[in-house]
Every structure is written in structure tokens, then in C-alpha cells.
Amino acid sequence: MDLWRVFLTLALAVSSDMFPGSGATPATLGKASPVLQRINPSLRESSSGKPRFTKCRSPELETFSCYWTEGDDHNLKVPGSIQLYYARRIAHEWTPEWKECPDYVSAGANSCYFNSSYTSIWIPYCIKLTTNGDLLDEKCFTVDEIVQPDPPIGLNWTLLNISLPGIRGDIQVSWQPPPSADVLKGWIILEYEIQYKEVNETKWKTMSPIWSTSVPLYSLRLDKEHEVRVRSRQRSFEKYSEFSEVLRVTFPQMDTLAACEEGPKFNSQHPHQEIDNHL
Ligand SMILES: *[C@@H]1O[C@H](CO)[C@@H](O)[C@H](O)[C@H]1NC(C)=O
Ligand SMILES: *[C@@H]1O[C@H](CO)[C@@H](O)[C@H](O)[C@H]1NC(C)=O
Ligand SMILES: *[C@@H]1O[C@H](CO)[C@@H](O)[C@H](O)[C@H]1NC(C)=O
Ligand SMILES: *[C@@H]1O[C@H](CO)[C@@H](O)[C@H](O)[C@H]1NC(C)=O
């Protein structure tokens, strides 16, 4: 009993620090619950059937979407029974002005899409899920914190050189930025991480991130097939895209090579369709 009073006091103290002057608004109460959950994990379990935010993601720093789980309660599965509200901190003062989600449709079921008119980078957002005014979940972020680009596309390769005659070759791998990221006019600046391996190896070799959209790979064994994949991230941020489709590099047979030495350019086989989410 006494412990609970301590928790509550602590939670309210923390939350009123975060929202000075806002009194016991829904935002204040919403802030209290994550604190309680951290202190007492069983509370989280008992409410695990509630709808919750699963993620917010901006593919290009110009729009973003947030998603939530449906939860177990049948009443809350009825379309329209859950509302998302958001507030932005425009000036230095944080006096939350909650507005309802501008678009529940474009990002699919249980989601809210914020088009570019509703997206401001560097400005803190808070979002909350409610049903009939009851708070279900709440989350705060800035849009640059939730950037996760789409994967690069159009991975391809050309032969540069046969460095050790008949044994090893150098290739140039190239790709294009994800179409969703307007890297010329937009805010986003991407860097790329390339991984490659021989087909039968289990571990990918990882190159350090680069800013260009092509890179040479040196000294690959001509008698092995190789696989290459690439992913992107907002420069100097942590969160990478999924990997691109895997490009399979098959060197031509030696007799073909000899015949082609004047114009060495070889197409890839069809890339794998699978996308591997693991490192
Ligand atoms: C964003 O959506 C609103 C309607 O929800 C629309 O009026 C506005 O034109 C849209 N803005 C852009 C840039 O598409
Ligand atoms: C790879 O590049 C070659 C030569 O530039 C081109 O003909 C081929 O269509 C490209 N393949 C893919 C998958 O883009
Ligand atoms: C091919 O690689 C060898 C060994 O690295 C180098 O000496 C040679 O200049 C390269 N040739 C071309 C055309 O790049
Ligand atoms: C990979 O290993 C399998 C058997 O484990 C073999 O049949 C296949 O030829 C190998 N492929 C390459 C490119 O080495």
C-alpha cells in the first residue's frame, strides 16, 4: 500500500515536471502510466491486451506514419472506436493543443498518416491513443528520431578487372537511392552499408558506410558465386532500412572471359527475391 503511494507521487511529480503549468490534463495522466509500468512490470502484463503504439516511422523526413496494435477487446476492434490525437511543441512553451489524426486511411489499418502538411522536422510531437476519452497509450518523439528509409533499389554490377589472371576479379557494384527519399531536393541525406559474401558462406562481410551509390569490390574468387546487398540510413543516425534484394554475381566462364576482354560488362542473374532482415 505504502509503496503504491510512493509510486504515484513519484509518477505525478515526474509528469508535472515534464508539463509545467499544464495541470492534470490527459497528457499528465498519460505520462504517469509509463513510469508506473517501468516500476511494476506486472501492471504492463495486466494491460497487455490494450491497443498500443507499435511504431512510428518516417521514410524520408517529409511524412510519417504511426501504427498500433488492435488489442484483445472486441469493442475496440470496431472501426472508429480508437482515436489518435497529436500535439506539437511549436514555441518554447509546451501547452499541448491536441488535434485528431488527419488521415486514418492512407497507411492501412490501425494507423495514422501525416502528410507533409502535418510534418515538421526537429519539432517534438506527442501522440496518444484514446477511446471515448480514455487514454490507452502515449509516445513522444521528433520526426528525425523516427527516420527509417526504404531499401535501395536497382543493385547491379560490372566487371572492372581480372586482377590475378584466371583466379580473382574486381567488380563495381552500384545501386539507386530508395525512390521515396528525395535525396536531391529533400531533407534526407543517406549513407549506405554494403555487405557481400560467397554464396556458400554464412557470414556477410560488412563495409563501412559510404555516401556514394557505387563501390568497387576487389579480389573476388572467379570460381565462386557471390552475393551482395545494401541498406541505407539517414546519415549519422542509427536506424537502417531493410536490406535491398540480394544481387547474385556469377563470373562468366574463362573461355567467355577471354573472348570478352575488350568490352568487359556482364549482367547479373536474376536477383533473389528474398529480403533478409538479419544482419
Ligand atoms: C495533407 O492532407 C490534407 C487533408 O488531410 C490536405 O488538405 C493537404 O492538401 C495534404 N497536403 C499535402 C501536401 O498533400
Ligand atoms: C545491370 O546493368 C546492365 C548493363 O548496364 C543492364 O543491361 C541490366 O539491365 C542491369 N540489370 C538490372 C537488374 O538493373
Ligand atoms: C588490374 O589489376 C592489376 C592488379 O591489381 C593492376 O595492375 C592493373 O592495372 C589493373 N588493370 C586495370 C585495367 O585496372
Ligand atoms: C554451395 O554448396 C553446395 C553444396 O553444399 C554445392 O552444391 C554448390 O555448388 C555450392 N555453390 C557454390 C557457388 O560454391
UniProtKB/TrEMBL annotation:
GO terms for molecular function: growth hormone receptor activity. CDD domains: FN3. Residues 151-254 form the Fibronectin type-III domain. One of its GO terms (cellular component) is plasma membrane. It comes from the Eukaryota. Coiled coil: none annotated. Its main location: membrane. GO terms for biological process: endocytosis; growth hormone receptor signaling pathway. It is found in: Cell membrane; Secreted. InterPro entries: FN3_dom (IPR003961), FN3_sf (IPR036116), Growth/epo_recpt_lig-bind (IPR015152), Ig-like_fold (IPR013783), Long_hematopoietin_rcpt_CS (IPR003528). Keywords: Cell membrane, Disulfide bond, Endocytosis, Glycoprotein, Membrane, Phosphoprotein, Receptor, Secreted, Signal, Transmembrane, Transmembrane helix. It is a single-pass type I membrane protein. The keyword Secreted applies. The keyword GTP-binding does not apply. Residues 1-24 form the signal peptide. On growth hormone (GH) binding, forms homodimers and binds JAK2 via a box 1-containing domain. Belongs to the type I cytokine receptor family. Type 1 subfamily. This is Growth hormone receptor. The gene is Ghr.
